[in-house]
Amino acid sequence: MQIAIVLFDRFTALDAVGPYETLGRLPDSELVFVAEETGPVRTDQASLAITADKTLTEVPSPDIVIVPGGPGQTAQMENQALLSWLRTADATSTWTTSVCTGSLLLAAAGLLNGRRATSHWLALDELKRLGVEPTGERVVFDGKYVTAAGVSSGIDMGLTLLGRIAGDDQAQAIQLATEYDPQPPYDAGSPEKAPAYLVEWFRRNSRFVLS
Questions:
Q1: Residue 83 CA: distances (Å) to CA of 41, 77, 111, 149, 154
Q2: pLDDT digits (tens, 9 = 90+) for 79-128
Q3: Distance CA 97, CA 155 (A)
Q4: Backbone CA torsion sign across 202, 97, 4, 163
Q5: pLDDT digits (tens, 9 = 90+) for 7-16
Q6: Residue 143 CB neighbours (<10 A)
Q7: What span, in angstroms and rounded, lies between the C-alpha atoms of 186 and 39?
Q8: What is the pLDDT of residues 135-173, one digit of tens each?
Q9: Cβ contacts of 178 within 8 Å, gap of 6 or more
């Protein structure tokens, strides 16, 4: 089973690394980072890069497609090289997935029309504008399409999909091996729980404000 994680300039690291640490441990699988060009691809923090070992054209038909989000997603919305590859890869994929605003790229490629999907909470209205039925759920399955909410939810998506593919025992083993046992110091991980002034600040300063 070949798993392709798409990289682009200014993606969010955990969007890609969460599924890498979960789905990447799937037995008898090959995980590859792909981009338009091989070489290091910088994250939105700039201080970190992940190496794309293969170009998009070298990986035309992966079994699982994983699309991260991040600030760089906006610039990719009209990147026909990437969108065309997504459509081609999706034609034969078993699972097509995204984390955070990566779902906007799937939507821009026309893959989520009329489907239920999620994204970062600040981007849900943008999903709707693109013809998708947005939901605030953390992980959403609609057919072979699996979308995860913001950033850290990519870990949940990876484990959930891993359970579907390899069974609950395998998924639980990987959860234990990675000691994924969230006990956050604050209960502020969603707009429903966070202080109202923080939610308002993020809404005012979101890149989706004018969308």
A1: 18, 8, 10, 21, 21
A2: 999 999 999 999 999 999 999 999 999 999 999 999 999 999 999 999 99
A3: 12
A4: positive
A5: 999 999 999 9
A6: 9
A7: 38
A8: 999 999 999 999 999 999 999 999 999 999 999 999 999
A9: 21, 22
Tokens 């026309």 map to which residue? 110
Residue 163: C-alpha distances to residues 76, 203, 208 (Å):
31, 35, 33
Structure tokens at 141: 């399955």
Distance of CA 92 to the CA centre of its chain: 19
Is residue 91 left, alpha or beta, with left meaning phi > 0 and alpha meaning psi from -120 to 50?
alpha
- For residue 57, what is the DSSP state? G
Pick the CATH number of 2-184 from 3.40.190.10, 3.40.640.10, 3.40.50.880, 2.115.10.20: 3.40.50.880
Distance CA 141, CA 68 (A): 16
Catalytic residue ranges: 100
- Indicate the pTM of the whole model: 0.96
| DSSP string for residues in 64-112 | EEEE--STTHHHHTT-HHHHHHHHHHHHH-SEEEEETTHHHHHHHTTSS
